[in-house]
Amino acid sequence: RSSDLWERDAVLAEQVLLLRRNFPVTLWASLITSVGTVWIMSLSMSMAPMLWWLASHMGWSQSGLLVSPEKVAATAWDQIASGKFWRAISASLTRNLSGFFIGTTLGLVLGCLLGLSHYFERLVGPSFNTFKQISLFAWIPLISVWFGLGDVAKVVFLSLAALVPVVVNTCDGLRNVPPNLLEVARALHSKYPKLR
Description:
Elements: H1 2-58, H2 69-82, H3 84-116, H4 118-133, H5 140-147, H6 151-175, H7 179-187
Helix pairs in contact: 3-4, 3-6, 5-6
């Protein structure tokens, strides 16, 4: 039995020496690999606008959708100067943030109820588990019928996108609180409801 331990220790010592000997080589290899990756990404990102410019000026595409980068830049400048760009950005941010806020708030409330209450979990849990299995994009036709194609439908879609992950993570977080933290809360006479 002691000879097995000696053999294992000898193998471990040999592996440590091998790692120490090869550490500078592996360090340089990883550094060269990461520098090469950054260089390739930079090259490809700089090539994309050049290919766009060539494709629009050489007539590689007969589509009217492929406009030159100069026209895109001029239109962007006109939109910024006229204020249309900032109005569009603020409308988009308002929709996104309101949908996120509604979905997150409802998700926190529902997740806390599911995570803290056995009764609520038995009552709503199976329905929610069925609801979360439905793909987010499957709701688009129903949302379009119920709310139309305006801003309300977009806010509802964004709320649904935020709701499910927040409910799942809040519920799991409350259910998986470590027992030692629960003991500390009980010792400090916590006013919060008992967790599972």
